[in-house]
Amino acid sequence: MTHSLDEVTPLRWRAAELADLPEIHSLLTAVSAFDDTTQRWGPEELEEWYSATGDLASDLIVIGFEGGSMVAVGWNVTETSGTIRLDGAVHPAFRHQGIGRRLFQWQLDRARDWFLAFGDAPEVCHLAFSDAPMTNKRSMFEHAGLKATRWLIDMVCQFPLTSRVAEFVVTPVLGVRFEQFSDRWVEPTREAHNAAFADRWGAQPVGPQDWIASLAVEHARPELSWVAIDELERVVGYALNSSASEPGGPSVGWTDRLGVRPEQRGRNIARVLLARSLDSFRRAGKDAGGVGLDSVDGGGTTLYRSLGYEPTDTIIQYELHESREQARAALDN
């Protein structure tokens, strides 16, 4: 049986099956190593997204072959009734032949088909991600009508620490004291977090159970985390930290959640929390401290740079929003 992509690319295509996952993993591993991508797919993750497609795997996952070798893969994952994530890869040896662009167009059309048949939201959001240096991939997204909406930036401060960190470890803030995080502050910190992100577009309040679960994950390090307390014994700022290391790689302390109540911003609270976190990482024997920044325009790094953080990896999120009428029209063109 022929596939529609057979007619517009030099490859032969078919729907993926569960038995193809090991070969798909090998292809993705090779592509990630060549492109030095931030995101790497593990076997368990591939099984999860394959299972998530359910009976629609044949409609949402496709693999391309040159002879007997798999050299391309594209898959769509329906994250919600109105959000579909589009991922894929083409082996470096088969690029610059229009394969990626044709594959991505096929994915967009299948996402539209799925939305019109099964989605119950008023519009669909096509979601895709690219490492910032991959300009060809980003150009492909933009050519298809997607717009960059978020920059996910990893920043790392290598030790030894700068003098600025030592300065802010002991910098006082009038009416605020800084303490190591403890069980006493679990619920007050959740309240501070919801207040800190209430003005962030798309943010949803975190409930008590989800909050407790997030603090209980294996890599969480409450003993390396900090809170800022005002004179009313309210948490007005927080830095909740974790630890990560790779075999043979550096041991890094990460600030996973950082926030300050809106009325307390501009008082160096976040800078002191970060400085104390970095100092805690150093005392715990870490090689560096890191933080993940969620930016709407690629900016917002000044605070972190002032303490010695530098960007290491940046992933850009792209989106295309379509109503049902727009999705139908796109399929008809």
Automatic annotation (TrEMBL):
Keyword presence, Protein transport: no
Superkingdom of origin: Bacteria
InterPro entries, A to Z: Acyl_CoA_acyltransferase, Bact_Acetyltransf, GNAT_dom
Q: Which CDD domains match?
A: NAT_SF
Q: What is its EC number?
A: 2.3.1.-
Pfam families for the chain: Acetyltransf_1, Acetyltransf_7
The molecular function terms of the Gene Ontology recorded here are: acyltransferase activity
| Residue ranges of domain N-acetyltransferase in the record | 11-196, 187-333
Query: What keywords are assigned to this protein?
Result: Acyltransferase, Transferase
Q: State what protein this is by name.
A: GNAT family N-acetyltransferase
* Source organism of this protein record: Ammonicoccus fulvus
For this protein's source organism, the top of the classification is:
Bacteria, Bacillati, Actinomycetota, Actinomycetes, Propionibacteriales
